[in-house]
Amino acid sequence: MASPCRYGLWLLLAVVLPLSACHRQKKPPKPVAEGSVPAQTAEPPDSGLYAPEIADSAPEHAPDLSDLVEPTPRAEPRSRYGNHTPYKVLGKTYRVMDSAKGYVERGVASWYGKKFHGRPTSSFEPYDMYAFTAAHKTLPLPTYVRVTNLENQRSVVLRVNDRGPFVSDRLIDLSYAAAMRLGVIDRGTATVEVRALEPGDPDHPGIPEPGPESVVTAPTAPMPPRVWLQLGSFSDRRNAERLQRQLQHRFSAPVLIQDAKLNGRHLFRVRMGPWEHASEAVAMEQQVRDGGFADPRIITD
Predict the structure, then answer these.
(1) Are 229 and 284 in contact (CB under 8 A)?
(2) Is the CA virtual torsion 250, 256, 259, 260 positive or negative?
(3) Tens-place pLDDT, residues 159-215
């Protein structure tokens, strides 16, 4: 008969050995290189930011976006990121559509701004609140859409490259620039129609589909608008040159004088830039204001 101590030893081994085996079999996760992204993602990046209690806002100084050009619908492959389906955000599951062809829906549009500016979208493109883009919960990324504000009949073509808005009664989240164009900024929301576009649609000509005997070439990406900081507009060139010298003495950004005509008047505009990204102009705008120069305006061409 085995002694109680031996029984105790066998009992101890029976418990410890399986646990040790499980511990050895569990491999640590592979390290992820800084700046890399996963092959698939169940939730958009920084999905916690979608929580409604985290406030969003417009830029402190509204730029002039009247000359911002709408994107042209063109054939693009599905984004590698942001099309994983189903995905889950804030406890709710969403399924990405197989195709946007024929999609038309009416609902409530909201907009998003500084809270997300510069952060990666669901497609891992950086969000630029000064570009004509939008977020949708289920349209494939990217998709081109025409959004019409049914309350004032303004419309704009947008490129959907993000997921949201993750609020039950919202259909689409507009970029700050899109919300400005549609007149949604002050009220915050509006009733809109969202209509998917394809190259060659009558609603927007876009880039025509190649014929059966045509040589297929990759579509050319539209040139991004240039962003400027305008400091003044003068009828006397000497005043423009005086301001140009002051700015050149204080700041490193290029300062140009551009001729213009407005209502038959010859004007000389003092501008800094240009930049490819509005965020660079915004940073310089703050430096200029801190330097004591009043009313710089962000403009695009």
Answers:
(1) yes
(2) negative
(3) 999 999 988 778 999 999 999 999 998 888 888 999 999 886 655 544 334 444 434
For 203, residues 6+ apart whose C-beta sits below 8 A from its C-beta are: 146, 195, 197
Pick from 151, 150, 131: nearest CA to 142: 131
List, as own/partner pairs, every contact residues 205-211 make where C-beta atoms lie below 8 angstroms and the sequence separation is at least 24, other chains included: 206/72, 206/73, 206/74, 206/144, 207/72, 207/73, 207/74, 207/75, 209/75
Closest C-alpha among 158, 282, 160, 299 to residue 225: 299
d(CA 70, CA 36): 31
Residues ≥6 apart with Cβ < 8 Å to 16: none
| Exposure letters 86-122 (e unless 16+ CB within 10 A, then b) | ebebeeeeeebbeebeebeeeeebbbbbeebbeebbb
Backbone φ and ψ of 24, nearest 5°: -70, -35
- Preceding peptide of 52 cis, ω within 30°: no
Instruction: Identify the structural domains of the chain with CATH numbers, from first to last.
Output: 47-197 (2.40.40.10), 227-300 (3.30.70.1070)
pTM: 0.53
